[in-house]
Amino acid sequence: MTPAQSPKWQSVGRSGSRTKARSSGGRYSVNALYSMAAEQDTDVDDDLAKAQKRLRDLKNKISVQSKKNFVLERDVRYLDSRIGLLIQNRMASDEQREVERTFEEVDPTAGHYPDERRLAQYSNLFFLLQSEPRHIASLCRLVTLSEIDTLLQTVMFTLYGNQYDSREEHLLLTMFQSVLSTQFETATDFGSLIRTNTPVSRMMTNYTRRGPGKGYLKEALSECINSLIEHKDLDLEINPVKVYEQMISQVEEDDGSLPDHLPRGVTPEVAAENAEVQAIIAPRLALLMEIANSFLMAIIDCLDSVPYGIRWICKQIRSLARRKYPDATDFAICSLIGGFFFLRFVNPAIVTPHAHMLVEENPSKHPRRTLTLIAKMLQNLANKPTYAKEAFMMSLNPFVENNKTRINQFLNGLCEVGDFYDQLEIDQYMALSKKDLTINITLNELYNTHALLEQHIETLAPGDKQHLRILADELGPAPPQVPRKENISIELNLFSRWETAVQDMHTALMDTVSSSDMLYMEAKSILVQLIRSIPRAVDKRPYNLIAIAERAATTKDASLVRKGIKVREMLRELEEQRVIDSSDSYKLMQEEVAAELIHLGNLKEKVLAETTSLQAVYRTISDHNDYLRSQLEHYKAYLQNVRLTASSEKAAGSGVGVVTVGGNKAKPVKQTFLGPYRFTHSQLMQEGIIVDSKVPEHRRPNIYFNISSPSPSTFIIALHYKGREKPILELDLKLDDLLEKQKDNKPLLDLEYVQLNVPKVLNLLKKIFSKR
User: Fold this and answer.
1) What are the GO BP annotations of this UniProt entry (predicted)?
2) According to the model, what pLDDT value does residue 611 have?
3) End-to-end Cα spacing for the chain
4) Among candidate residues 586, 603, 633, the one where a domain is terminated
5) Which residue of 120, 204, 281, 542 shows the fewest CB atoms closer than 10 Å?
6) What is the pLDDT of residues 175-195, one digit of tens each?
7) Which residue segment(s) compose the domain that 397 sits in?
8) Cβ pair 481, 448 in contact under 8 A
């Protein structure tokens, strides 16, 4: 199926075309559909139904918890970077309001809640986005790297948030196929496919971090990693420069000085040629390859546990690569698959096992370095190794050479999974028969997705008659993002004006199979429900179908009475049509009902086993949530102490200072407005703070700058002209934004008329305000 073609299920339920979309295997599809209905029947309350309900609830809890963790991880990363910058520069005495908002609780009574008409429009829009993944696929290709994380949160954890629902998962994978197909079509360099940091690669990485992926990583890697990190003092460093430095430090410590033949600061080549360094490294190489081999075997042995979706993506990469690059070798194509499977999925978990919930605490220094080296070895094995940047890794090349064949077999084995298009067609029928298709979404997710669609609507839906364009035009401009306190979560019911809900399976499928087939399937389905609902009926074999129908029709349960009367009439009609015969006690129907119940009995064992497995996943995700929350609490306490003590710190260069998390609370100090401090244009030019000026030479003597600090970490630079009361322009600066510019090597700050040097602005601000 090419990206331009609509999958056949997309027309299901549309007026005038519903039945034309059916494949020729009508009877098979009907059978499968009724089996699914029997497995998910909400009218039945037997042990299987109860087990399935517990499993559905557990899957939903995992999905909800995964989304919370995704948001918390993003907050922790943000605060890590911001606070790290502030501490490094020892300058801020408070965090700005933007950071404080990270800790504010959401107020469910507040918020810019959409009215009923607008909610209905959003319901239409998100039904369309979910059921026709090509729109989201196009949007993911159009957004910038700075926009992708917020969009991915909505896509991965909201739009397709039920990670264990086959329909949502299959729709999400369909979106991946479209995105990957376009990436392959537009790629100019085979080597950069999958590996470069693009919205597509970010999307694939986030997909692997969902619940099923975490379960595989725990099964495959947890034991290996935990065994390794127990050896806290095991140093397996093989970089000759680092080994040399360690060696001379030890010699100096033991002897008090260094001999002449061991100079400091040697080149990598000199360090590698040192005989003592070689003697230290040799046994380490052997042990590293042994450990890496144990990791590789653990990964390969768990092939069958790799989540279907991840294997299906591997399959698409192989298929697209073969079509786009017909001359590419199997090894080259496997390197692409490895680029996804190892670079985006397995190796991040090896390098940071604590962040992936594989260990209880961060590994110590030496095991952490060993894990990094193992990840590099696996990456070199999965890809064609290049040792230009780290020549010392060439010593581990025997590991690569010895395992080439094995890793290619494994990577090809990942691709050996079936497609899901027929299954998805059935999933779509089931979804259309539901009345409770919903997603939980925050207002900011709603409005952010709306804004991105509005921004790219000309590309996404250029035609006025396209459904997406119609909905976007009706919605109009996207509302702005709401404050964190007002960012409530709402339950959005999904439906569409262009979809006719399937009220029953007969309506959905009646034109594709004979009426007697439909009658037969429906009767069988009802009989299965009755046997599951009537106490001990399942134990009495062979099943007396008429007796079961009569028994149901005479109970005190109104639902069973209706079903009993209905199925009794169905059996009579089927006999009149000579499909079944009462003289042999409806033997054909008996056998199929018994087979269905055996299938459901086996299903119960699978449901219980899956529940047990997912309970462990849920506990792990919940533990990680607790850890992330504790991190945020530490940050909150830290920043609160900084705020309370900042204004009382008078010593030179005190800045942030050292604050004890959870220490005694100081009394709040009243914030004061500092400044303004005046500087002429000439002064700032002489200091090199003004890098470039558009102010005419003859006007520069009349220009001056006022610099003030209305609150800690916030500064205002105002450009004035003598004789005018109001400034020509004002620039509101946040300290950590300046620090981030400096960290990212962006040295210029544009004030429209002048450009300022960021590091020198920081020095000036420090000189002015650090002692005040």
Assistant:
1) negative regulation of Ras protein signal transduction
2) 84
3) 68
4) 586
5) 542
6) 888 888 887 877 777 766 666
7) 209-414
8) yes
